[in-house]
Amino acid sequence: MNMKRNSVGDKVFDCFNLTGLFILVGLILYPLLFVAIASLSEPDQIYNAAFLLWPKGFQLESYRIVMENPDIWIGFVNTIVYTVSGTLISMILSVLGAYPLSRSDFKGRRFFSFFITFTIFFSAIGGMIPLYFVIDKLGMLNTMWSAILPGGVVVLNMIIIRSYFETKIPMEVQESAALDGCGNFRLLFSIILPLSKPVLAIMILFYFVHHWNAFFYALIFITEKDKYPLQLVLREILVNNNLNNLLPTMTDQNYLERLKQQQSLKYAAIVITTLPVLVLYPFVSKHFKEGLLVGSVKG
């Protein structure tokens, strides 16, 4: 059996290719590792070291202070409610929108496909002020719905689900079910969705991250702090330096120590707010190839 041998040029190319990939991965991963390492390091070490590869002066005091802050827990609870409700609503709307668009016998399919795709290039929202008035007239100001519904559907995700239905669900199966008297809702929930678990798992992850990280609509429409999602609490800590509930009152003589402690608290808060997404990712990562790449290409 003859095995193809790589030439010297191929080996050189592979070497440069792998080297470039390792550098690229390092540039992407190191900021994440730096935040985690800095959150475990002593505040003095963060200021004195510009480059960290491991914790210096290991400590968990910053995590204890952050976890004892009631605003963090309120934000966690609000974000869990917003994220679970938003992901459920987004998945229902995306699936119900993708299914008719995937049916070749649906009249008006081309028109609705164009109309929905059009919103990707030109936002359907006609400005923030009109949207604010709409939310106000609907009585949704300072409610969870004002943070969920305006970004409830991501059109690209709906298109990926539609493409998966078209390419991975055999039309013969759908026709056989229709001959047996299966209606559209029964066909969708009993046949198509069980066969579409990979793309559904990926879309759940995408919508989970989308709603977990969302803060803009909550920033505009929610003014009561007890309804803030976790990202707005984090914004108060990182952008506005609002650490009054985290750090005890200090005199001016301890100003430098307070600044050092602030940095450590910020890193700890970032780790805590991103941890749920990092925990969820491994459970659905195995579906990425089949659910996303296949579902995004029609053929």
Characterization of this structure:
- With 299 residues, this protein is mainly alpha-helical.
- It has two domains: 1-59, no CATH class; 61-293, MetI-like fold, CATH 1.10.3720.
- The protein contains 15 helices and no strands.
- It has helices at residues 8-40, 43-48, 61-67, 70-102, 109-121, 128-137, 144-148, 155-168, 171-179, 184-192, 197-213, 216-221, 230-238, 255-284, 288-293.
- α9 crosses α10.
- The longest helix is centred in the N-terminal third of the chain and has 33 residues, at 8-40.
- It is globular and about 75 Å long.
- 25% of the residues are buried.
Largest sheet: none
Find the CATH superfamily of the largest domain. MetI-like
Question: How many separate structural domains?
Answer: 2
Termini separation comes to 35 Å
Could you estimate the helical fraction of the residues in percent?
A: 55-70%
Classify the fold: give the CATH topology of the largest domain.
MetI-like fold
CATH architecture of the largest domain: Orthogonal Bundle
Put simply, the count of helices is 15
Strand content: under 5%
* Topology as a string of helices (H) and strands (E): HHHHHHHHHHHHHHH
Could you say which overall geometry the principal axes of the C-alpha atoms support? globular
* DSSP strand count: 0
Low-confidence stretches: 295-299
- The pLDDT mean sits at 81
